[in-house]
Amino acid sequence: MNTIDIQNNWRHISLYAGLAGLLLLPSACKQTFLETDPQGKQADVVFWANEGDATKAVNAMYANLRTWANTAFAPIALESVGSDEAEKGSSASDATFFNDYDRFSIGSSDGQLRDFWSGQYQNINYANQVLDNIPGISMTESLKTRYLAEAKFVRAYSYFRLVRAFGDVPLRLKLPASAAEYNLPRTPKAEVYAAIEKDLTEAEAVLPASYPAADAGRITKGAALALHAKVSMYQQKWQQVFDLTNQVIQSGQYSLVKDYEQLFRLNNENSTESVFEIQNELVSSNKAASNSQYSQVQGVRGVTGGGWGFNVPTQALVDAYEPGDPRKDATIIFRGETTPEGDIIPAVGDNPMYNQKSYVPFSLYVSGFNEGVQQNVRVIRYAEVLLMNAEAANELGQSAQALASLELVRARARAGDATILPKVTTTDKAALRTAIWHERQVELAMEFDRYFDVIRQGRAAEVFGPKGWKANRNEVWPIPQNELDLSAGVLVQNPGY
Question: What Cα–Cα distance (Å) separates residue 290 from each residue in 28, 65, 78, 283?
Answer without folding.
Answer: 16, 13, 25, 6
